[in-house]
Design goal:
Structural class: alpha/beta
Radius of gyration: 22 Å
Oligomer: single chain
Order of helices and strands: EEHEHHHHEEEEEEHHEHEHHEHEEEEEEH
Distance between the termini: 27 Å
Length: 402
């Protein structure tokens, strides 16, 4: 690797990705802003990420998006009163566009507090991360090589075309594309011309967000007759505040059974804490399952292969089958250990330490890139101490190398 454009001195920490995770971590650790910190973000945003383009509600209560923001930084937010409302324990899910606005405010506050040697580089694509015995470096799309004492990968998640839908690929749209505000006009024109049903493949948060978006769009384009069918491979999960509430309200026909151990969060007592539908998504699915939405229904299948008839007849298929962690090419001392298209999870220890080729790499961290593992997806204990543990590691590492 030739260092054609290198920074004059190594950075203390480089964050690859400038979305919610990075901005909330930096806002919660203002001491770090006095160090040589770089944030490399591929879009023109810092804080809000793709949220500004998503026409859907948050999947969790609002305070979980902004609750980690330190008061010293939050005080600089354009509307502190609104931020305080969002941090309230009883705050409800809210439009992601609104979450984006708040996080962009926090991003501006964080950027303003960066030291003279710190910087946020927007529209900066990282193409390679190299972790070696003498440190870590990142390479950008313009050929710049940035050496750093520590690199934090916070690149978020992405949908990838699912192989089970390969035979209908030309008629398939990803759920993240369907909820894109920028695609509204094209979607309205497409739906207006459809003469066949729309099939949503999936039954989780993204599938219900897609259904809500389609219900709005078919009304906007004057096609209330357009048939919408959700195809789910497993029973849908709803969120409940307690096991007692779940036992009293759960519909055994349309909802997943509840495991009192696996599905109940030991920290909060909530049932299906993360995987369960909330707010408008919860109400919409219940109405759908009860046959209360004209022209819309839900089908249960063992696999997508068993839905081949529905898929073949669909005028449009919406893929809502989960996400993969996104990351650039990663190299270790002996070569490539993960390519950008890898299906392997980007593994990290409880304190964020990246595990590369089964070996922990202390100078490289992963900040909640992959979806939560299924076995702990509803447990508030998972990742609860990640920010503090990562901050301790960074303090120790920067102190040692100062």
């Amino acid at each position: 690797m030739t260092d054609t454009l290198s920074t004059s001195a190594p950075r203390d920490v480089v964050f690859v990705g400038g979305g919610y995770r990075t901005v909330s971590f930096l806002a919660s650790q203002p001491w770090l802003l006095q160090h040589r910190v770089d944030v490399l973000e591929r879009s023109n945003s810092f804080g809000g990420g793709a949220f500004a383009d998503y026409d859907c509600m948050s999947t969790s209560v609002a305070n979980r998006f902004v609750g980690k923001v330190a008061p010293v930084v939050a005080a600089a937010v354009e509307d502190p009163r609104r931020l305080s409302e969002l941090q309230h324990p009883d705050a409800e899910p809210l439009p992601l566009t609104e979450v984006s606005t708040v996080l962009e405010d926090v991003g501006r506050a964080v950027e303003a507090r960066l030291s003279a040697t710190g910087r946020v580089q927007r529209q900066c694509e990282v193409t390679r991360i190299r972790a070696r015995g003498d440190g870590v470096s990142v390479e950008t799309g313009n050929g710049e090589v940035i050496r750093s004492r520590h690199v934090v990968i916070a690149t978020g998640r992405e949908e990838r075309p699912h192989p089970a839908l390969a035979h209908v690929r030309e008629r398939t749209i990803l759920s993240s594309e369907l909820i894109s505000v920028r695609r509204t006009d094209d979607l309205l024109a497409q739906l207006k011309k459809l003469s066949a049903p729309v099939v949503i493949a999936g039954g989780s948060h993204s599938a219900v967000a897609a259904l809500l978006r389609l219900l709005r769009l078919r009304q906007q384009c004057g096609r209330p007759d357009l048939v919408l069918t959700m195809v789910r491979r497993s029973p849908v999960r709803l969120h409940y505040r307690s096991l007692a509430e779940a036992q009293a309200q759960r519909d055994p026909i349309s909802e997943a059974p509840i495991d009192p151990v696996a599905d109940v969060c030991p920290a909060t007592g909530q049932v299906n804490r993360d995987s369960g539908l909330r707010g408008s998504g919860r109400a919409t699915y219940r109405a759908l399952a009860a046959g209360g939405i004209p022209g819309a229904s839900v089908r249960s299948v063992r696999s997508l292969e068993h839905a081949s008839g529905l898929l073949d007849e669909a005028g449009l298929v919406v893929q809502a089958l989960g996400y993969h962690g996104r990351a650039p090419r990663i190299e270790g001392p002996h070569g490539v250990v993960r390519t950008p298209d890898s299906d392997d999870r980007l593994i990290n220890l409880a304190d964020g330490t990246a595990v590369i080729g089964s070996v922990p790499v202390p100078s490289l961290s992963v900040l909640r890139v992959e979806p939560t593992p299924l076995v702990v997806r509803d447990h508030g204990l998972y990742g609860q101490g990640l920010y503090d543990a990562l901050a301790r590691r960074l303090r120790d590492e920067l102190a040692v190398r100062a």
